[in-house]
């Protein structure tokens, strides 16, 4: 896999993480609202029966997992750059192995955290 493919893979992973983080922010907001409502006299039945509360249920497991994959890939690339001359066969092998591990990591994340539409 060439550097251009690696860049595209990392960019795709970063976009996926960003989308999941945005969904996570929705959940954080809901939890903040819930905590405000819990301390007031607003009524649990009414709050929990509102459809918008249930529309965007978020599991951040995939985003967290993909974030770890990206951090590991970035660290591996830095190690390759530090330990091998750029463009050398060892450097290319090192970066390819790092990318292969990142792809496997991403696949494992997707398997362990299926996205439910």
General description of the model:
The chain is mainly alpha-helical and 117 residues long. It has one domain (3-112). It is built from five helices and no strands. It has helices at 3-38, 44-49, 51-55, 61-83, 89-112. Helix 1 (3-38) runs antiparallel to helix 4 (61-83), helix 1 runs parallel beside helix 5 (89-112) and helix 4 packs antiparallel against helix 5 (89-112). The longest helix has 36 residues, at 3-38. The radius of gyration is 20 Å and the shape is elongated.
End-to-end Cα distance: 31 Å
Content of β-strand: under 5%
Question: Can you give the mean pLDDT?
Answer: 81
Mass-distribution shape: elongated
Class per helix and strand makeup:
mainly alpha
List the helices and strands and how they pair.
Layout: H1 3-38, H2 44-49, H3 51-55, H4 61-83, H5 89-112
Q: Can you tag this structure with a few keywords?
A:
single chain, 117 residues, mainly alpha
What's the gist of this structure?
With 117 residues, the chain is mostly helical. The protein is 80% helix and 0% strand.
């Amino acid at each position: 896999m060439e550097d251009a493919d690696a860049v595209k893979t990392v960019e795709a992973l970063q976009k996926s993480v960003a989308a999941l983080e945005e969904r996570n922010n929705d959940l954080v907001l809901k939890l903040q609202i819930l905590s405000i409502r819990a301390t007031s006299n607003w009524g649990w039945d009414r709050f929990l029966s509102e459809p918008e509360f249930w529309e965007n249920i978020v599991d951040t497991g995939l985003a967290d997992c993909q974030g770890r994959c990206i951090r590991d890939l970035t660290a591996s690339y830095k190690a390759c750059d530090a330990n091998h001359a750029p463009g050398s066969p060892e450097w290319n092998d090192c970066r390819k192995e790092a990318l292969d591990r990142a792809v496997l990591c991403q696949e494992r994340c997707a398997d362990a955290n299926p996205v439910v539409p």
